[in-house]
Amino acid sequence: MAVSVDLALLVIARNEAQGIARCLESARPHVGRMVVLDTGSTDGTVEIARACGAQVHQEPWRDDFSWARNRALELADADWSLFLDADEWIESGGESLSQAVLASGPRLGAVLVRSDFTQGGFVQQAGSWLTRLLPRGARFQGRVHEQVVADLPRQRLSLVVGHSGYQPQAMLAKRGRNRALLLQELASQPENPYVLYQLGKDCEVSGELAPACDHYLKAGAACPESAPYAHDLHVRLLYCLGKSGRLDDALVLAADMMERWSASPDFFFTVGNLFLDRAIAHPQTASSESLPMVEQAWLRCLTLGECPDLEGSVVGRGSFLAAHNLAVLYEGLGRMDEAGRYAQLAAQMRAAQHGGSDSQ
Fold first, then answer.
1. What is the number of alpha carbons within 13 Å of residue 121 lying toward its C-beta?
2. From CA 139, how far away is CA 265, in angstroms rounded?
3. Is the pLDDT of residue 104 over 80?
4. What span, in angstroms and rounded, lies between the C-alpha atoms of 333 and 26?
5. pTM of the model
6. Residue 131 φ/ψ region, left for φ over 0, alpha for ψ in the -120 to 50 degree band, beta for the rest
7. How far apart are CA 263 and CA 48, in angstroms?
């Protein structure tokens, strides 16, 4: 693809030899040049990046991701910059980049980042809309989970980015680093809901669900109605409350949120799980109270379908995951015809989601 404007790929890296070639090769056809800022690799990252055709700069790490991204912007000195992390790659929609930069007027471009994560022993995928395409002059702020600072409209692009950084092995390598930076941010901004939300996520992925609840509750109390992360925050809060022994609190909060998230399959999927936990905790009333609510919640997921525009939406909660759960529920209730029907539906939906292959 011929690029008629100065569009550069920017990557911040340190010891990313395992994935940086995939990152760079996925972006190479869609950008004019590639710039890597290495902050102290010892594993061959620099050599691999250069072999892929990237211009590599090396500077010591300063415990500040905004500094690193802003330094990369300075080094590239490009009209437009696309940021990818080294554990990310373009899955589809690369052609939308040229369309975005050739459109009239500067804007920020948000891309859909699909992150693999493990929950309940299964690999799942969640989507986040992140600002990654920047015109000249935009900058970042925040030591970690940094955000773009620019008084410009934000446009969602049809660019889909894969991300493997939330898998257990990758998270083990990051554990402690982000927490320390988030705590520094919180010390300077103790009421910042976005920092509290990110701190809650850091605790959650580390299995520390009780402190995750505390951070999420504080974030929710201060979170603006229009905050793009509000949906993910609320769904995560309900999950963590339920799994940390605060099931009644979770159900009360879910009732309060019902109207706001009436179009979210992720919300109803989580509500169904909460009522299932309540059925297990109170078997004497399960059939008359909790299990009908479980069924209604997961059926609602199928009615709503997939909603990738919602921040943090997990693939399958509006399709094959909900259908699978219904099949298991009906089997447990002895409703075998319905169990078989929804098991077949789940398989069909999963195959459709994965391009016709039901190998997962």
1. 0
2. 34
3. no
4. 48
5. 0.89
6. beta
7. 45
